[in-house]
Amino acid sequence: MQQQPPSMWKFFPMLPIEREEHIVSLGEQFTPIVPLPTLGAEIGLPLLRMKDEGQLPTGSFKARGLAMAVSKAKELGVKKICIPSAGNAAGASAAYAARAGLEAYIFLPEDTPEINIKESQVCGAHVELVKGNISDAAKRMNQLRNSNPDWFDVSTLKEPYRLEGKKIMGYELAEQYEYELPDVVVYPTGGGTGLIGMWKAFDEMEQLGWIGSKRPKMISVQSSGCAPIVKAFKERKADSQFWEGAATIASGLRVPKAFADYMILDAVYKSNGAAVEIGEDEIVATVHELARKEGLFICPEGAAAFAALRHLLTEGLITEEDSVLVFNTAAGTKYPEVVQLKIKN
After folding, report:
1. From CA 31, how far away is CA 301, in angstroms rounded?
2. Least confident stretch, 76-85, 148-157, 331-340
3. Cα 318–Cα 254–Cα 71 angle in degrees, nearest 5
């Protein structure tokens, strides 16, 4: 049989699973780093690249964290998991729970993108829709957990294992860059587990002697409709305040207050990075721009990260000499509602 491309499980010794037979996998291969010559030349970033997490199982980077969380839950003898989600984590939870033979209880805002609801249901998860946002979904889940003590909570950073899965993004990009990290990492930030995970991975790799002390500037990007990290960064705060009335087409960014906001901000500050907010119209326009100029249909969260580039250049936070890696966190095909919107001139 032909040898498979490398997967996130290549780094098994750095992961918390004790025995390989407990791995629950749907084929989490390395995601490609794609050069962007047209856009890079146009905006003045010849070393611009994209890491396309949309090519993971279930179509988003959430596969990494949930593959790890469900694998460890299985190893620990857990039978039922529960999670509140703004979208893609729901589908990933349902899929990996089905693969492992676990029950999944998923709580979603009523206006979650339809595909996230359907993919959770088709995988057999128990799905409840809640009025409000992910914080309201979490409140409802926790109410029910009081009478269901056998539910294992896999919420963002409420257990350590999703972070361990997300940190593999750091290991992957280091190998793909031949252990010379890029100058800048631009990351769309909701719960921020991926940004925190990569920061952890860089420290681990330095301890292993794989890389030196150089770190990329970590750029956190949010929507202007929900930008608690950006507000805290501008005010040089150590943590954020709850964002009232959160609303954005980029459902993964609609997190009014990240559980580990202080860890996100710590990584941004220590890396001499920044936090940037992008307007809704610009997000939608950038989805169309990447598709037309590079043939890449990216998610609105990834589009927010790309839209941030021009702002970062204007403000002198990045330069044309920098190697810049932007994360697209999900496949654009999971967001058909975005391309139904008209771009305002």
Report:
1. 17
2. 331-340
3. 95
d(CA 273, CA 220): 8
Positive or negative torsion for Cα 332, 333, 339, 340: negative
Length of the chain: 345
CB 284 within 8 A of CB 213: no
Which parts of the chain are beta strand (E)? 33-35, 48-52, 80-84, 103-109, 126-130, 151-153, 184-188, 217-223, 274-278, 324-328
- The CATH architecture annotation of domain 62-161 reads 3-Layer(aba) Sandwich (3.40)
- Please give the model's pTM, rounded to 2 decimal places: 0.93
Do the domains 8-56+165-339 and 62-161 sit in the same CATH topology, yes or no?
A: yes
CB 279 within 8 A of CB 253: no
The second-level CATH assignment, the architecture, of 8-56+165-339 is 3-Layer(aba) Sandwich (3.40)
Average pLDDT, rounded, for the chain: 95
Task: Give the start-to-end residue ranges of the domains of the chain.
Answer: 8-56+165-339, 62-161
What pLDDT, on the 0 to 100 scale, is given for residue 271?
98
